[in-house]
Write a structure and sequence with these properties.
Protein name: Cytochrome P450 CYP736A12-like
Largest sheet: 4 strands, mixed
Number of domains: 1
Number of helices: 19
Strand content: 5-15%
Bound molecules: protoporphyrin IX containing FE
Shape: globular
Organism: Daucus carota subsp. sativus
GO molecular function: heme binding; iron ion binding; monooxygenase activity; oxidoreductase activity, acting on paired donors, with incorporation or reduction of molecular oxygen
Membrane topology: Single-pass membrane protein
Family: Belongs to the cytochrome P450 family.
CATH superfamily: Cytochrome P450
Radius of gyration: 24 Å
Length: 503
């Protein structure tokens, strides 16, 4: 068969597939009102409209079609939600219907067939994994009990920055924070700091990019085999590299367990490995099913959840503080008064009200997960008069919600922490104006840890140092471009010069 014949065959098969889908959809939806949305193309639907920064493209479309908009990504009916009240309808009022996750090629490769928590379907398996991670790692008590290790790692960073400050060096702030969070996470999960045998931050960035991409294979399955975006190849390479890292971590822990029967100082991986041999465990359901690939998928979720998110948030907060010297100054003054010594302790954080406003405002403008993680509906439902069919994908435009002009009034694009003064807007999933951690059943289980990481690191680094931009760049010239993925990092690393401040 010639290449032209082959191409014609593919196009004809695609068109036939699309035509059958359209007929099926029309029969199902006959007489039922759909949320408004733009007209799509045959086969690909609206995939071509997403662009390089989908959160921005979808935000623009929603300004025309409204806060509950329907589009079609290939064959997948998709609802885009872009206002707080609409988000509340989906994530609170009808949370049970939308608490599942869609199938995704990236999760198949990178999460051992969606065996972790973040990408698994709603149901008893997901519940058992979530309960295990919450009780054994992410509960307030567990996280607070690990304050010492966070303080130690942060102390090491401060010392290295003092050396850079004395030498007047430019530091790669993004890189430094990435390493810090990696160290803190490794100690928490594996009982020791970052391992020189592998580079977790780098592989996590790749994973976030792949997992966040709108992969044509997920939406137009017959095109999957062609790997038009190169995502299948990248997923395979990353999955293999990550698997090697996870195998090393588990091997090390098994070796340790063989040589040490004191059972003291057990870290998260030790607890997980012990689960299999412990039938009376509180986590009986998981204990019965857990195997090596489930163990790896869960560790991967924890590494990914902890590292990429906190470091991205800290980078944006610091960028905004450097761009707004008066906000930086006010924050330093608050910390001086409350902390009143060199080291910021976690017990100080709740008293730092202005820091809280700074964090909220930065997460409003730069939500770490701009489109949350996609949800999927588990049954047909009518919401706000619109019919939404089972297995629809739900995308919450977190980035757009932070810019809803009806909520944030004027200066929507401006970094203005004071806008939170005297309001009761919270960021823990109760106030739908600001949901950086999502909300409802699938809301982030690592929120307590995430908030501590962010607040502690920012507070200490602005308390110990003033920060200047290098190469004569003025604050308002700092590049604030975004790079899209499951998370939304800065497109360029943040470079800055620390100047030591005596408290
Ligand atoms: C600044 C810090 C963080 C932010 C902004 C953040 C944000 C989010 C968001 C938006 C979601 C998706 C919610 C949804 O789909 O509705 C999520 C889910 C998740 N996060 Fe976080 N997160 C952070 C820190 C963490 C940490 C420290 C961990 C764990 C160590 C973690 C683990 C997870 C997991 C496992 C899920 C999936 C939950 C599920 O599907 O049931 N996150 N996070």
């Amino acid at each position: 068969m010639s290449p032209t014949d082959f191409a014609l065959l593919i196009v004809s098969a695609g068109s036939l597939w699309w035509f059958i889908l359209q007929c099926r959809t029309m029969v199902r939806q006959h007489g039922r009102r759909q949320p408004p949305g733009p007209i799509g193309l045959p086969v690909i639907g609206h995939l071509h409209m997403l662009g390089k920064l989908p959160h921005r493209s979808l935000y623009k479309l929603s300004q025309k079609y409204g806060p509950i908009m329907s589009i079609r990504l290939g064959s997948v009916p998709t609802i885009i939600v872009s206002s707080p009240s609409a988000a509340e309808l989906f994530l609170r009022t009808h949370d049970t219907v939308f608490a599942s996750r869609p199938n995704a090629q990236a999760a198949e490769y990178l999460s051992y067939g969606s065996k972790g928590m973040a990408f698994s379907k709603y149901g008893s398996y997901w519940r058992s994994v979530r309960k295990f991670c919450t009780m054994e790692l992410l509960s307030v008590a567990k996280i607070d009990s690990m304050a010492r290790l966070r303080r130690e790692e942060l102390g090491l960073l401060v010392e290295s920055l003092k050396v850079a400050a004395r030498a007047g060096e430019v530091v790669d702030f993004s890189e430094k924070v990435a390493r810090l969070i990696e160290d803190m996470t490794c100690r928490m999960l594996f009982g020791k700091s970052r391992d020189d045998r592998f580079d977790l931050s780098k592989i996590i960035h790749e994973l976030a990019e792949i997992a966040g991409a709108f992969n044509v294979a997920d939406y137009v399955p017959f095109l999957g085999a062609f790997d038009l975006q190169g995502l299948t190849r990248r997923s395979r390479v990353t999955a293999k590299a990550f698997d090697k890292i996870l195998e090393t971590i588990i091997d090390d822990h098994e070796e340790k367990a063989r040589n040490d029967d004191t059972k003291l100082d057990r870290d998260f991986v030790d607890v997980m490995l012990a689960l299999k041999n412990n039938p009376t465990s509180t986590h009986q359901q998981l204990a019965e099913t857990i195997d090596r690939s489930i163990t790896k998928a869960i560790i991967l979720d924890m590494i990914f959840g902890a590292i990429d998110t906190s470091q991205t948030a800290i980078e944006w907060i610091m960028s905004e503080l450097i761009r707004h010297p008066s906000v930086m100054k006010r924050l330093q003054e608050e910390i001086n008064i409350i902390v009143n010594c060199e080291v910021v302790e976690e017990s100080h954080l709740d008293k730092l009200e202005y820091l809280d406003m700074v964090v909220k405002e930065a997460l409003r403008l730069h939500p770490v997960a701009p489109l949350l993680v996609p949800h999927e509906s588990m049954e047909d439902i009518v919401i706000d008069g619109y019919y939404i069919e089972k297995n629809s994908r739900l995308i919450i435009n977190n980035w757009g919600i932070g810019r809803d002009p009806g909520i944030w009034s004027e200066n929507v694009e401006e970094f203005l922490p004071e806008r939170f003064a005297g309001t009761d807007i919270d960021l823990r999933g109760e106030s739908f104006q600001l949901i950086p951690f999502g909300s409802g059943r699938r809301g982030c289980p690592g929120m307590h840890l995430g908030l501590i990481n962010i607040k502690l690191v920012v507070a200490q680094l602005v308390h110990s140092f003033d920060w200047e931009l290098p190469f004569g760049i003025s604050p308002d010239e700092l590049n604030m471009d975004e790079a899209f993925g499951l998370s939304l990092p800065r497109a360029e690393h943040l470079l800055a010069i620390p100047k030591f401040r005596k408290s």
